[in-house]
Amino acid sequence: MCVWVHLVGMNSTDASRSRRRLVVLISAAVVALLLVGVGVYGLVSGPRTTSDPPPARPSPTAPSTAEQGPRELAPIPETDDPEEFARLVAEALFGWDTTTGLMPLDYTSVLLAVADPSGVEQAGLASDIAGYLPNRDTWVELRKYSTTQRLEITGVFVPDAWAEAESQAQPGQLAPGTTAYTVEGVRHRQGIWNDEATSSAHEVAFTIFLTCPPDGDPCYLLRLSVLDQPLR
């Protein structure tokens, strides 16, 4: 049986659920947003858990292109459409190929290239992204099985919780054009196991926090929720 690695971030709760507050780190400072019904939603990823990599030895005939040298990743296209940008980010976040010679940091760099231009959120965003990608050791193991991944998006919407957060934000706390999109989809993985092609599918959901400036400048990425703990 093929064993697939599922990396799920864990968030921390900084106040009791009775306070019903959402903490969102965006713009140039820590932005505190009240969110009714879900308690404090930390966007900084906590400890991540992984399952052990496949114990069996890799197939000697599994195809690999890593020896040919790394392939350059295409940048995320610029757009001032928030939903389109959320879709592009989601696809880049989940789309990777271990046979190219690239490593997780290469995929992280593509996402950081469209991050908050002020740089304030870059460290937090990098931590968020790490909760979605295999770590280096797991990546090396997955490469032995020519593992690839893609996201089939089934839904993209602004969560009701975001409207509540906006209504309770203090003036100036949110940059103009800041919003959140929850993405629902199916994560598909494919690879070679004992000389045979194999695949798995797993439903996922997460929230992307972004800003599309009203002056028409390209959208940029702020933060990501913990995987499978989206705003609704």
Low-confidence stretches: 1-67
Structural class: alpha+beta
Estimated helix fraction? 10-25%
Main sheet specs: 5 strands, antiparallel
Q: What is the tally of beta strands?
A: 7
Strand content range: 25-35%
Shape: globular
Question: What is the straight-line distance between the termini?
Answer: 35 Å
* Alpha carbon gyration radius: 19 Å
Strand order of the largest sheet: 3-4-5-6-7
What's the helix-strand series? Answer: EEHEHHHEHEEE
Mean pLDDT: 78
Number of domains: 1
Number of helices: 5
Compact summary:
With 232 residues, the chain is of the alpha+beta class.
Molecular structure report:
By secondary structure, the protein is of the alpha+beta class. The protein has one domain (17-44, 76-224). Helix content is 21%, strand content 26%. It has helices at residues 82-94, 104-112, 122-130, 136-143, 160-168; strands at residues 21-26, 29-34, 96-97, 148-157, 178-193, 196-211, 220-224. A five-stranded antiparallel sheet has the order 3-4-5-6-7. β1 (21-26) and β2 (29-34) form a beta hairpin. The radius of gyration is 19 Å and the shape is globular. The two termini are 35 Å apart. The model is unreliable at 1-67 (pLDDT under 50).
